[in-house]
Amino acid sequence: MSDANASSPSRRGPSRSRAEKATHRRLLEGMTYEVIPLKNVHDQTAFLPANSTVSVTCSPAKTIDDTLDLCATFSEDGHTTIPHLAARMVEDEAHVDRIVRRVRNQDIRKVFVIGGDADPCGPFTDAAGFLRSFLDRRPEIDVVGVGSYPEGHALIPEQALVDAQIEKQEIIAEAGLDGYMATQMCFDARKVRDWLERQRAVGVTLPCQLGVPGAVDRTKLLTISIRLGVGHSARYLRKNRTSVIRLLSPGGYNPNKLIGPLSGAADELDIVGIHCFTFNAVDTTEDWRQKSLRKLAPNGTN
Predict the structure, then answer these.
(1) Any bridge partners for residue 35, and if so which?
(2) What's the CA gap between 195 and 150, in Å, rounded?
(3) Global pTM?
(4) CATH placement of domain 23-296
(5) Among residues 296, 290, 221, which one has the least CA distance to residue 36?
(6) DSSP calls for 16-81
(7) What is the Cα–Cα distance from 94 to 97, expressed in whole angstroms?
(8) Could you tell me if residue 268 is left (phi over 0), alpha (psi between -120 and 50 degrees) or otherwise beta?
């Protein structure tokens, strides 16, 4: 018995390493590609793998219809689309009706509901309020995604974030739908893990998709910021100052440095996927993903 116990750590070490690499690879294989409704997004379509899942943002500089229009284009190309629906950009209850009609007509099965950065143009100021109104109309969807904040929110207290997440979780469950939460950018694996442990401890059970920036060139990132508008970029910067500085630093960052350490905790913390912020740099992001998959293959070099 003592000999077996003495040898078990050496057996578990390689096995755990293989398991973590397999999980890392699985997360990359099922990655969701977030894109922004700007002109250059059409140039990037060709770099998406066949039958990808594409999450289309709801930019304050555009409209919800622009988001749904882009979803229609990606659907025609054979991709699964997830439109972002920003509560603060919804004008009134009649607008909710129009959104529901478009979602049904386009056979969209997944949506991602956020509060949004824009000033409210109607009665909704947060995701939960819009979500209730939207789901009351039975939009014939299967899955609802919501946002989450491992490093907190510049304008919302931590307890309010937890309360809101529990409320959204309950709304989704009451509608009999599946749900998930996707994290905002965070480059510290330990912070993400600690935050997820706290979320699980207080009753947040939504599966988690890690929000991970793709392989994006600093110049392209700055160009997109300008296209989105200075005011909107400033609001984004207030919420994500640390992450933006990290992205713009010389040498950038390696997304695998976040994904890798969390792969070992994926089952424990219910991490089910990667929500990749491509910033419309699908070409370089997909190149990074393919290289990573080759390294993570059973006979790879990683």
Answers:
(1) 56
(2) 6
(3) 0.86
(4) 3.20.20.220
(5) 221
(6) HHHHHHHHHHHHHHT-EEEE-SSTTHHHHGGGSPTT-EEEE---TTS-HHHHHHHHHHHHHTT-EE
(7) 5
(8) alpha
As given in the structure block, the two tokens for residue 235 are 């609001």
In this structure, the dihedral spanned by the alpha carbons of residues 24, 275, 281 and 117, taken in order and rounded to 10 degrees, is -150
What tokens does 143 get? Answer: 């899955």
| Segments of the chain scoring below 50 in pLDDT | 1-16, 225-237
Angle at 273 between CA 104 and CA 161, to 5 degrees: 80
Report pLDDT for 179: 98
| Tokens read off for 31 | 């990655």
pLDDT tens digits, 79-133: 999 999 999 999 999 999 999 999 999 999 999 999 988 889 999 999 999 999 9
SS3 (DSSP) at 302 = coil
According to the model, what pLDDT value does residue 230 have? 36
The per-residue pLDDT for 270 is: 98
Q: What is the average pLDDT value for the chain, to the nearest integer?
A: 86
